[in-house]
Each structure stands twice: as structure tokens, then as C-alpha cells.
Amino acid sequence: MADPRPIALDAFGGDKAPEVILEGAALALAQGVPVLLVGDTDRLRGKVPRGAEVVHAPEVVGMDEPATTPLRKKPNASIRRIFELLRDGSVQAAVTCGHSGAAMACALHVLGPLPGVDRPPLCTVVPRKDGGQLVLLDLGANVDCKPQHLAQFAVLGEAYARAVLKLPTPRVGLLANGEEQGKGNAQVRAAFSELDAIDFAFVGNVEPLGALRGECDVLVCDGFVGNVMLKTVEGTIEVAGHVLKEELRRRPDALLGRWLLAGAFRRFRQRTTYDSVGGALLLGVDGVAVVGHGRADARAVASAMRYARSCAAAGLVAAVRADAARLLGPRNGR
Amino acid sequence: MADPRPIALDAFGGDKAPEVILEGAALALAQGVPVLLVGDTDRLRGKVPRGAEVVHAPEVVGMDEPATTPLRKKPNASIRRIFELLRDGSVQAAVTCGHSGAAMACALHVLGPLPGVDRPPLCTVVPRKDGGQLVLLDLGANVDCKPQHLAQFAVLGEAYARAVLKLPTPRVGLLANGEEQGKGNAQVRAAFSELDAIDFAFVGNVEPLGALRGECDVLVCDGFVGNVMLKTVEGTIEVAGHVLKEELRRRPDALLGRWLLAGAFRRFRQRTTYDSVGGALLLGVDGVAVVGHGRADARAVASAMRYARSCAAAGLVAAVRADAARLLGPRNGR
Description:
Isopropylmalate Dehydrogenase, 2 domains, homodimer, 11 strands, globular, alpha/beta, 44% helix
């Protein structure tokens, strides 16, 4: 039976909040996702989509404030309240498109890490050439990592791939600048033996090209490198799309060809646009916490809500908890 | 007056050497680039394209041998001899598609670093959305770097952009996971003040998306991150091209549209394919040294030859030497 509880949505997180968030909430509701909007009810009055619940949280954290503001100075911030509702069991999952540093700080503080997890990573999925999905982590939660953190990310990402993507034996790769063992920087070389000692399908070092072709299902790296990789994918898609558009418009007699292929171009854009997921998941905390793009539009907000619900419905947290205990448990003493 | 000296080409470097290299040499000659082939003359007999000079160097370094092999065990290796010919003034520049670690080791050992340069980086150019070119370095010569190495890369890349791309005031960016000062990992945060203290147009932290859109002309990072970024660009182009092809072939009635747009798709592939340059340049050594892809085809080999000649013709080494002395000179004492 589907969980009847709603997904908490931070109404005041994002560059165009609350308008775009409310549009996204309406879209999510229309798609069958139960929504609980969290924010200043005075400012939301008359704007709440039919069917959405509302919880009052009057304070807002600005993008220029420190990540710790909701923990230290604004206890009634919407970006904090969504995770308290999740901790208390009122909602299935929590979504914000607000200050990502503050979101991670609140999720970790309020929900707490799962046993064996020192530093929860952000993860998302990237479409691969072979039609599969690549789980990429960390995307920027931890820019300076030790080898054992990469090992933890690997276990969390592997549990995600089994629970959410339903892969029976996800192949785990370590992002490096070459496939041979011994490639990589000092951090990666040290992490190799950590990953190799874990009881899962470790396929060794994987290069970005190989990962995008489908050589692994989970790709592990530190948050600085993962952020560069994800944003390079986004940037390259943007450049390639722009170049394609320029070339297609170069000659007026190409108009008919463009018209004939319009459907193909539309599907190409859909398949290579990254708001299909709508946000990154903070893995390794005790609850499903999704952090969306600050510049998310209504469609991306609704995608993030659906994504959060699918992770909750897949029993992600219980699966990750079990795997972390099994694979990281005996290693905690270090 | 154009330099009449040839470009030295390692005939036995690359996955399909010497056949593909010889085809590339013929192509380069046809395009007006004087070629000096370096390799075992017995094995080249009867295969040398008309107009190419040949120098004998009987030893070959395999891809599975240590990078130091041509320095320690095979002094007559073709991958070493090309740089000796360059050092002695017999050629304008040297090109190899062989073992890249061995190529860098030989170039550094034989040519020597320019004053002020501790660790020569590999650099290339990537097409930007605005039609410009992004100079990206280091691409993998130095996977573990100190902040002062990033500062040296910046000076070398800026000199390249002025000398070869003819930009009067290249904008230099530091690759990071956010634009605000204070973003980045520990290495990037420390490098920020180093770059900020140099007398050139430093624009601060730049994200991959911003760099690909045109926010800077030179993007600096360590060799691990730069390698990941370059290979992610290549991988994303490959995935996007594959998805586009799949969508275009999905319906048979799209055939006419594809035929009408064939020219546009061809130009799109040309503009987004990275063998337009054909290789990476080892910056900061005393000579123009180009390291091509091991899997380079004949066209890529010819591109690498033209690229090497254009760098030599632009007076790259003298420009880099002058800038390194001016901008790094007083800092050498550290």
C-alpha cells in the first residue's frame, strides 16, 4: 500500500520562491504526489494550490547567509522545519530548492547520519550511452575527503542503486584518470584498496568516458571532482545544443528538415536535460532529503517531488541503513 | 618568413603505429607541413611518403612500459629522439602519439623546463558556447599539485592564449565548485590568493558551466581534475551524439528530414569533435612538444602536426619564457 503521508516542500527555498515553488507544488499534486508546503502562512495566503497541506515556518534563509543560520539564528526557518517534519514522521520525504549548504546542514543535524556514515554525500543519476543510469556521488557535499569517505560513498551509492534503480548487483567504479590500478591522485590511489576490500562488485578505476558509456553503475569521487564532472556534463550539453541549433539554422532551406525532425529534437532535449530528476539526494542521513537546483522551474520542482517519493517508496533509508551496517559496521573502529 | 625546418613525428608512437602515423604524415605533407619521420628505418622502408625526411631511431617504447624506459633503458627510442632533434634545432617542433607518460618524461628531460616552471602542464583548447576557445590546463601531467603549481599553470596558459590565440588580455579563471571566493577545496582556496597576486586578468573562481559559456579564456586546475573535465566533455559529446542519432532514426519518415539536414549534422560533428586540435601541448618546456591521443587516426595526426607548427610559428616558447620570467621570476625563491 502506498504511503499516504505527504512530501514536505520548502515554499521559500529557490531563486524564484515562493511563486515557482507553488507552481511546482500544483504540478506535483496534479501528478498524484501529496504535498505539504512549509513556509510563512501569511505570505502563502490565497496562493496555496488546492489539495496541499500547509505548515507554518515564518523564517527564510537567504542565499548569502551562512549555512549554519537555520541552526544557530533562525530555528523557525522553512528549510529546517521540513526536516523536523520528516524526523517526526509527519511526512515521507523532504524537498528544498533553497540554500544547499543550509539544507545539508539542517538535514544532517535534524535527521542525523546513519550508523557508519561520517559525511553524507549528495548523489544524482546521469543518463548513460547504453540507456542505463549512472549514480554519481559525491556532488559537492564534501569537497575535501579522506579515502575512507570515498569508501562510505561507494557503499551508500551501491545501496541506492539496488534499492531505487533495482539493480541486483550494481558495479561500483572509482573515478580516475586512467583504468589501470595505480592511476589517480594520492587520494584515489589510497581509496582503491579501501573499495577493493568491501564485499560488493568493485570494478576498479573508471574514466569519465567509460562511465558514461556504461562501464559501471555507481561512480565514486570526492565532492569537488563530482561537482566539476556534473557541471561539465550540463555545460557540454548546453554548448552542444547551442552548436546544433546554430548549424540547423544556418541555411533557410533547412526549415523543412527541422520541421520534419521536430519530434526527434524535442525527445533529444528531454533525454539530455537534467531536470528529469530535479535534484540531488543527500544519502546517508536518516530520511529521504532532496536538494533541488536554486534555479529550478516548476517542472523541476515537481520532478524533485516525484523523485523524493520514489526514493521513499523504494525503502531507500532502510536499505542504506542495512548496507551501511553490514559493509561499514566492522570498519567503524578506525 | 616561414620557418623551413620540419616537424619531427614519432613514427612508432600510437596504437596503430606506424601505419596510421604514416598516413597522417602524408596528409600533413599534402597540407603543406614539412615532416621529419623518426623511427626504425628498416621497418619504414618503402612506406615513407614522398617529401618526408627520415631519421633513424630503432627502439620503440610499448604502452605497458614505465614512463622512464626511454631515459633509462632505450636511449635510441623514437619517442626520445624527436625531442633531441628539437633541442638541437633540427626541427621546429615534435609530435608523438605514443606513451604519454614517456613523452612528457622525455620532453622534460631532453628540453628542460623554462625558468620558473617546476612542473610543466599539458594544455589544450575546448570550444566554447560563445564561439571562443577555452584553454584548459593541466590535463593530467600533474595529478597532485600544490597551490604554486596552479599559479604556474595560470601564467603558462595566459602566455599561450596571448601568443597562439592572439588574445590581448586573456581572462584567467580558477576551476571551482562555485563562483564566490572561498569556494573550492583546500587546494583551490589556497591557489586563489596565489593567482590573485599575479599581474594578469584573474577573474576568480569559475565553474565548468560558466567556463564553457565563455566567462574566462584560460581555466586552471590540477591534472586530475582537468583530465576528468576534458574526458567528461568528450564522453558527454559522445552520449549526446548517440542519443541524437537514436532519436533521428526512430521513425522511418524522418529520412527526408535527415537528408535535408545532413550538412548541418556534419558541421555539428566537426565543431564538437576534439581531434580538431589533435593533441595536447606540454607547456613550460623549452620547445613545442605535442602529445597526441594514442588512438589518433590519420586526420588527428595531421591536425597535431598543424597544431605544433602553428604554436611554433606563433613564437610560443619565447612568449612563455618571457612571461614566466616576468610573472614568476621574483617568486622563485620560495
